Amino acid sequence: MSASRYTYLGPEGTFTEAALRTLPEAATRELVPMVSVPTALDAVRGGEAAAALVPIENSVEGGVTATLDELATGEPLMIYREVLLDIAFALLVRPGTALGDIKTVTGHPVAQPQVRNWLAANLPEAVWESAASNADGARLVQEGRYDAAFAGEFAAPTYGLQPLVTDIHDARTAQTRFVLVGRPARPAARSGADRTSLVIWLGDDHPGALLELLQEFAARGVNMMRIESRPTGEGIGRYCFSVDCEGHITDRRVGEALMGLKRICPKVRFLGSYPRAGVDASDPAVRGELRPGTSDSEFEAAADWLARCQDGRG
Amino acid sequence: MSASRYTYLGPEGTFTEAALRTLPEAATRELVPMVSVPTALDAVRGGEAAAALVPIENSVEGGVTATLDELATGEPLMIYREVLLDIAFALLVRPGTALGDIKTVTGHPVAQPQVRNWLAANLPEAVWESAASNADGARLVQEGRYDAAFAGEFAAPTYGLQPLVTDIHDARTAQTRFVLVGRPARPAARSGADRTSLVIWLGDDHPGALLELLQEFAARGVNMMRIESRPTGEGIGRYCFSVDCEGHITDRRVGEALMGLKRICPKVRFLGSYPRAGVDASDPAVRGELRPGTSDSEFEAAADWLARCQDGRG
Amino acid sequence: MSASRYTYLGPEGTFTEAALRTLPEAATRELVPMVSVPTALDAVRGGEAAAALVPIENSVEGGVTATLDELATGEPLMIYREVLLDIAFALLVRPGTALGDIKTVTGHPVAQPQVRNWLAANLPEAVWESAASNADGARLVQEGRYDAAFAGEFAAPTYGLQPLVTDIHDARTAQTRFVLVGRPARPAARSGADRTSLVIWLGDDHPGALLELLQEFAARGVNMMRIESRPTGEGIGRYCFSVDCEGHITDRRVGEALMGLKRICPKVRFLGSYPRAGVDASDPAVRGELRPGTSDSEFEAAADWLARCQDGRG
Amino acid sequence: MSASRYTYLGPEGTFTEAALRTLPEAATRELVPMVSVPTALDAVRGGEAAAALVPIENSVEGGVTATLDELATGEPLMIYREVLLDIAFALLVRPGTALGDIKTVTGHPVAQPQVRNWLAANLPEAVWESAASNADGARLVQEGRYDAAFAGEFAAPTYGLQPLVTDIHDARTAQTRFVLVGRPARPAARSGADRTSLVIWLGDDHPGALLELLQEFAARGVNMMRIESRPTGEGIGRYCFSVDCEGHITDRRVGEALMGLKRICPKVRFLGSYPRAGVDASDPAVRGELRPGTSDSEFEAAADWLARCQDGRG
């Protein structure tokens, strides 16, 4: 029964699985690893799964382009949750392998920049070859094709490996953000500390179009949290923009900004409003970020005033 | 009965009276000249008159500060009509006076810059002294205090004078704009070529406040037609702004801009939306001025889209 | 000898004369009253006077349009100093006149809004008639044409009058700003708390032109202190802008903003950079107003960096 | 001798090699394939090579993050040339292999989205596994590990393979842009149709910082051609921006924009100004893109005017 099934970017033992297991509802769902982001999302589109968890952004490697591009195109999907996970690698080896024995290492291409410095310092002679995923690298070590794999420590037992070194990461705060994606429905309820995700196509490529896009947000005091250009496939120099802004689509300032975008851009895709992970909505500092004049109550007072003016009771 | 009475900036024979008589309804109203703009407007405030016609802007002398300041302060009033009048002066003299006899001339201070060049060329020795109005200057000539007065040619018979020279004006296109002011009620109906008038007070005087004000208009593609700073009386460097923008308060783009102003400015006074004089609302060039994405239908389409997104039908 | 002669807006006994006498150099100059702002300035243009002091802005009545328009047109002039003067009126009468005797009052039209409330409260029946200047009003009282004149208390002895009531003013902080105007030469030295005055004509009247003008200032962190629209004489809706910004033309940020204006506007007239009156240049609060990234040293560091990049030493 | 040596992203047979061979000077250089973008660039940093050719942007897959990040960090490098190459894949197989024999395919991860549709239509059952490069995939086919590899047709002979299908690409206009990178020196001469590359770090992460960055360009009429956010490694939500704008660092408008960025951003890295590939600098359409007021001659006229004003000759 699909409502009880969640797909995720597999195989078993990836950071994505670890992220998925932080969700309380994961305990009662059938969790199905998929070989790629597109297949994980297509299972949702096709109704075989209720939702999919996929990585969208890494603090070292940046946006996960497969996810960004899948969400931007094809049948629409929506984001309902986000999960933040600290990323630290373990060097997984077959039992008995010592550091000096390692000639070849593998891992997901995304892992490489995060372990680059550690490799240069500790295994300068080792040859790196990319694997399709960190867990896949672990499997290839199990099969003997490589001597060691970088993966999450939690992947070791699945592949009969041992963590030789743990907590390897170059950047102090390496994190990956994952999103739980489903078919379009009513957005998650407003928490007070929300994120709204969009994909925006600019028009006839006039030079100031990006500036105009940002001004639609700025004019309503809506803060941009993330912006990534992605090629539209129509040639070098043609981009669409994957954008996150703070706030919820039911916040008046966010709604007005979205309508402004919709009017000036040939295409806008709403990808969801959902609670920001790692942020406490009851923290006054989070609520206090609003620019004066952009709260819902100020929007409503201004709308009342406008109605009074239109009626001659200004 | 006050509903049938209109006041205007008198005395009889001023350009204001001439402007008032261009309104069809003037034929059926009692037209009462008042000694000043404040008294003309106070008669409306007090209910003794239904409306007042007063000058607000002259193409040579600029804004009529008495009108701007009266509309900005005191009990609120609203503008329902505007009238544009070409301004040309006649030199009025007592019968028998020749150009060579003229040693002293008078007229309203506003007239002076418009006849300055003519005076320098034709009566370089004549001494100018200001009168309270052009018509008042005519009266003072009638009484013999001055030799000649600049006024509208139509004022001559009222004061038993003769127009010695007519069609005097320095700037080729001298015009005055007058407004018909009443107590606040529902604005004039939208004509498709409208003007909306406001007075806007800026906040705690931070340097970028004026720029922010203009951006509220620009963000919605609403064109500014006129902006005048007026002192608030709180000291050098403290201003409020008398602003006209194109469009009607019931235009969606104008309404959103006004709400934006209301949210960021400590005080906004709506002075009315009314048809632009001298402009044909059915002219495609007038209608075609809209920036893409700012028509009512585009606003409505964007609002529909937002509602669909909020409902999960994006 | 013209170098020793200063003209001012007369006649003797005006606030302008009082402002002029606050300048130390006034003690060693011949001070010549003129009948109007244009004649005072034309004496400078013609070389009969080294400089002229004229009012430019009043905290109650706003810009002095005769001065603004004279500086905007005709042979160029430049501002070298400004003087701020508190404005309080005295009611001047012939010796022996009591308040109850006063049926007619006079004064400059600019004085009227400043004494309006006082008149309504104290002489509600008195008829106001405008005079060419406050001092001229005093002269007309001396001649017996009016019963009382509003003027500066200092004007009383000149006209053989007595101040019946003193310190009359509606707005608590009524002030007039005067400027000392000469022929164009090197601007006044930078004081650290300066004002730069400009007249700016916008181009083909496209709707966003005023916004673009303001953005040239904003882009360089230059604060606008005053902006007044003035008609160009080419018809209703055609304006030029009289603008003051903070800073000196030799400040790098001001220079870059001025060059930006010069490039986008069909005409810019530089009217001078001069010390702000009533401001202490050594006050850290005044110096601290600069936006980060806009000091001269930051401009110079950025220029050095650019040169290094252009030379391949980035 | 290093001056005669160019490195490139190898191995032999990659699109990068094909792009490099389009440069006339390549005929007289020793061309050395390197295993990765970092090693290709480090050879330049270390002086073992005069320059390196690396891919920077693909019209389907977007920015090449290894290149963007290497140019943003470490010892500074500079871009002197760009090359645009149309990307079409061939399916390379060992002689004798038929389409029906293919169970496993490989190629660079960047190739996958470009051949995804072709695979789904023609080899729906084939399993994809990523290789370190397209050429590396060819080598693995040669070694028998996979049945087929996607790579440039030109790579076939190097690895003893045959192109079974050619001209495979999903997006009609698939192109890759490559850059020739050397140690910092004087930029390439201005061609009249140039591109300037920068990396820009924003300050204390205030919400409007990106808008301010774009406004420094917009204020000088400098068009943005490309913008990519890249994580700084300091955590989710912390980005720097890889930016290309049109124009050359010796264009006055570009220089002023760069100085503006330098003043407001904590760090700006200039990566070079160089001729745009695929654009004819003598084409009036290219030269005509300039916004009025932003040509060098207008900048110089404005600078002359400013100097005259500062000298009192305004």
UniProtKB/TrEMBL annotation, chains A, B, C, D:
Q: In which pathway does it act?
A: Amino-acid biosynthesis; L-phenylalanine biosynthesis; phenylpyruvate from prephenate: step 1/1
Q: Does the keyword Iron apply?
A: no
Q: Report domain ACT positions.
A: 198-273
Q: Per its UniProt record, what Pfam families does this chain match?
A: ACT, PDT
Q: Quote the protein name from its UniProt record.
A: Prephenate dehydratase
Reactions mediated catalytically: prephenate + H(+) = 3-phenylpyruvate + CO2 + H2O
Keyword Magnesium included in the entry's annotation: no
